[in-house]
């Protein structure tokens, strides 16, 4: 049963890289670095040799790419309730990212989504995941109890770099979200039959948008690029592959380029690996 979620009465405007329109909220230094094209020294473009450095921006910031995508039909909402909004310090906020429930109490998103203006992680208790958010109602919600950033991303920040191939975060919730079926993580198939991106855009913050079909245009160790474009709010959204066993999360939206969207591959991270299932 879907539940109506009231707005938080005290939701301070805590800025993070994938902010929406919180007035006066500063963007994190990590996000600025990627947006200006100077922060991929050990990230996707240089480390893998992919020529996508020019115009590369964190997907939580404005991109010149024209985003496509259609609103998720209401009849399909229950099937995709594992995808929801990641909000900091409250439910009713325009600063948001997208996240995916990959276990009853684990949410996968992008690391830059949970950073403050000084590139420090938000306190877990300030982060709320709202599963299946649609027009003011949610399938379930949970508050953060623990937060893990990919160690490669954290090391990059310490060195003044933004490593897009490691732009992953895992949020442990304060309780399992009963009634919501998680979406399992899996490796990116060599020849995926179909790919899609499902997330919450800043211009459609209260309903999920699906971009499909997406094609892989570039592959590299730890990441890949699709031809589906993304906009603000889509950071942390799952890149989904259709398999014989069902849809699987094979990537997490991190950034956008003139060629489409850039996604690190989560199954390679040891913190996520226990929740993986083979695509079959």
Describe the fold and architecture.
This protein has 280 residues and is mainly beta. It is built from three helices and 18 strands. The strands form four sheets. Strands 4-5-6-10-9-7 form a six-stranded antiparallel beta barrel. Strands 2-17-18-14-13 form a five-stranded antiparallel sheet. The chain has a five-stranded antiparallel sheet with strand order 3-12-11-15-16, with no helix packed on it. Strand 17 and strand 18 form a beta hairpin. The longest helix has 8 residues. The chain is globular and about 40 Å long. The chain starts with a strand and ends in a 16-residue tail after the last strand. About 24% of the residues have low confidence.
Overall pLDDT confidence: 78
Structural class: mainly beta
Outline:
globular
- Can you list the strand order of the major beta sheet? 4-5-6-10-9-7
Biggest β-sheet strands, sense, barrel: 6 strands, antiparallel, barrel
Helix content: under 10%
Indicate the radius of gyration in whole angstroms: 17 Å
Termini separation comes to: 31 Å
Number of DSSP strand runs: 18
Q: With helices defined by DSSP (H or I, 4 residues minimum), what is the helix count?
A: 3
Q: pLDDT below 50 for ≥5 consecutive residues: which ranges?
A: 4-27, 31-67, 90-94
How much of the polypeptide forms β-strand, as a percent range?
Answer: 25-35%
Order of helices and strands: EHHEEEEEEEEHEEEEEEEEE
